[in-house]
Every structure is written in C-alpha cells, then in structure tokens.
Design goal:
Elements (H helix, E strand, L loop, with lengths): L4 E2 L2 H21 L5 E7 L3 H17 L2 E7 L5 H13 L5 E4 L9 H7 L11 H8 L8 H14 L6 E5 L6 H10 L3 E5 L6 H5 L4 E4 L17 E4 L3 E5 L2 E5 L4 H4 L5 E2 L7 H31 L1
Parallel strand pairs: 1-11, 2-3, 2-4, 5-6, 5-7, 7-8, 8-11
Antiparallel strand pairs: 9-10
Helix pairs in contact: 1-10, 2-10, 3-4, 6-7, 6-10
GO biological process, one term: purine nucleotide biosynthetic process
Pathway: One-carbon metabolism; tetrahydrofolate interconversion
Protein name: Bifunctional protein FolD
C-alpha cells in the first residue's frame, strides 16, 4: 500500500481564495463591489472568533464586509427587521447569520427570512430543496469544501461509494446531495443504522460528521479509503486541551489512501467557500438585474 496522503485543507483553501480574489477583481472592473453582511447575536466566544476570521478573509480577497452585532436580549422581530433591511439593500450581496442564536430567537424564522439569493450559508429551504434536486444553488460551505477536497484528491468521483456518517442539516444531508450530484453511490449512516461499521467498511470515500471524538477507527475503514473528517471536538488529553476529529487519526492513518487532519483539514475550506459563495451571489444578482433590465426594455 502507498504511503497515506495528508489532505492539506489550508493549501486547498488558499487556492480557492486566489480564484475568489481574481473574481472580485473582475467584478470591480465592472463597478460591482461584492459585499458580505455578517450578523452576530449575543456574545458567544466561539462565534466571535468565527466572525472575526470570516471578516479577515473577506478583507484579504477584497470583499467588503459589514458586521452587525446585536445584544443577547435581541428578539426575533428585531433580528427579522435587520434582515429585511439587508435584503432590500442592493449593495449587499451576501448575508450570514452566525449560529447559534440565543434561546429566545426563532432560528428557523430568521434563516428563512434571508432571501435565497443572498443566503451564502445555503440554509434557506429554497436552496436546500434546489440542492436536493441537483440544481445550481448556493450550497452550504462546509460540504462544498469537502467536495472540493475530494475532487482534488480523487479526481473523477463517478461511481464511487461514499458513506456520510451523520445526517445534520448543516453537513450530513447537503453532503449526501452534493455527492449524488457528483454521481457517487451514497449511504448515510446515523444513530439508528444497524451495524454501521460493516456498512462503512464498504466505502471508497468516508465523510465523518457526527460530532463524536475518535468514533471512527481503522475497523470502520476499507484499505485505501479516502477520509474527510469534518468533526472538531475539544478533548482533555493528559491534562492538555486539544482538538481532535470524529476519526481516530492515528488508528486510521495506516489504513487509508488519504485523510484530512484535524485541525488543518476541512476547517479552512468552510471560510474559503463562504467567500466563494459571496462572489457567486454577486454574480447571480447581477445576472438577474441584467435580465430584468433587458425584459423591461423589450
């Protein structure tokens, strides 16, 4: 068996961001400045870090970023009012609502309030439905980043058997839809799946997104499988706090053809594809505007 390959998410994200920067420059040449509005409700420390990183990446690629911070006591109606204003602002191309939200805010209503064309997280039901139908829509960033890593690692994905472990709305379900669109045969495993290890051992590709540290070890994996580990779990290891994935990396490494490390694998791809989605949204909105102008003239 060949030496296992580490899938470098940082390097892949850098390549994506170079292309995004080029797209931004082309749009600016047409007097279009891509803009992303980020909404942070409350004071969750992890969310503040995520938002800061997203804004830094936006600045690096030339995307204008606007941060809206709302208090922990913000009501659903107050949040919906802000979203409505951002929806109506033609200079804003993407709206990102940082999750989680405080308990009193209706998350579903808030996500559904963002117009699908500005929903750069891909969480609106119209984008979710479009993805399941195989249409080109704004897809969730983490699954899109995982698919990019797979295409860069495996080349043509057609006919490969992919197992997705986890069925969340944010990763598992959209990941399965993207893999189906890429002509993979897809199995989704979850807490009610009988003998998940045996099912997983049949897979050419494994995407672990279940949120349980080191759940998947070598006994789950077919020799030569490609593994994408979406999990980010903080554990106490001999008195030291560190991040690990859903895959037991040391156990899996001798068994696989390629694997993402944690950290440094999928994480950087999420922000890179948020930037890519923002540029895609700007292009989609410009195309819709041009069509509307042409229709009014005719």
């Amino acid at each position: 068996m060949n030496t296992p390959r580490l899938i470098d998410g940082k390097a892949a994200a850098a390549r994506v961001l170079i292309e995004v920067r080029k797209d931004v420059e082309r749009l600016r040449a047409q007097d279009i400045q891509p803009a992303l509005a980020v909404i942070l409700v409350g004071s969750d420390p992890a969310s503040q870090v995520y938002v800061r990183n997203k804004i830094l990446r936006a600045e690096e690629v030339g995307i204008r970023s606007l941060e809206h911070r709302l208090g922990t006591d913000t009501s659903t109606e107050q949040l919906l009012d802000l979203i409505a204003r951002l929806n109506a602002d033609g200079s804003i191309h993407g709206i990102l609502l940082q999750l989680p939200l405080p308990a009193q805010v209706d998350e579903l209503r808030a996500l559904q309030a963002i117009v699908p064309g500005k929903d750069v997280d891909g969480f609106h039901s119209e984008n979710v439905g479009g993805l399941s139908q195989g249409r080109t829509v704004l897809a969730p960033c983490t699954p899109s980043g995982c698919l990019y890593l797979l295409e860069q690692t495996c080349g043509d994905l057609r006919g490969k058997h992919a197992v997705v472990i986890g069925r969340s709305n944010i990763v598992g379900k959209p990941m399965a839809a993207l893999l189906l669109k890429a002509d993979c045969s897809v199995t989704v495993l979850h807490s009610r799946s009988p003998d998940p290890q045996a099912l997983c051992r049949q897979a050419d590709i494994v995407i672990a997104a279940v949120g349980r540290p080191r759940l998947i070890d070598a006994s789950w994996l077919k020799p030569g499988a490609v593994v994408i580990d979406v999990g980010i779990n903080r554990i106490d290891d001999a008195g030291r706090s560190r991040l690990v994935g859903d895959v037991d990396f040391d156990s899996a490494l001798p068994q696989v053809a390629a694997i993402t490390p944690v950290p440094g694998g999928v994480g950087p791809m999420t922000i890179a594809f948020l930037m890519k989605n923002t540029v895609t949204a700007a292009l989609m909105q410009q195309h819709s505007l041009s069509e509307a102008v042409c229709h009014s003239i005719s």
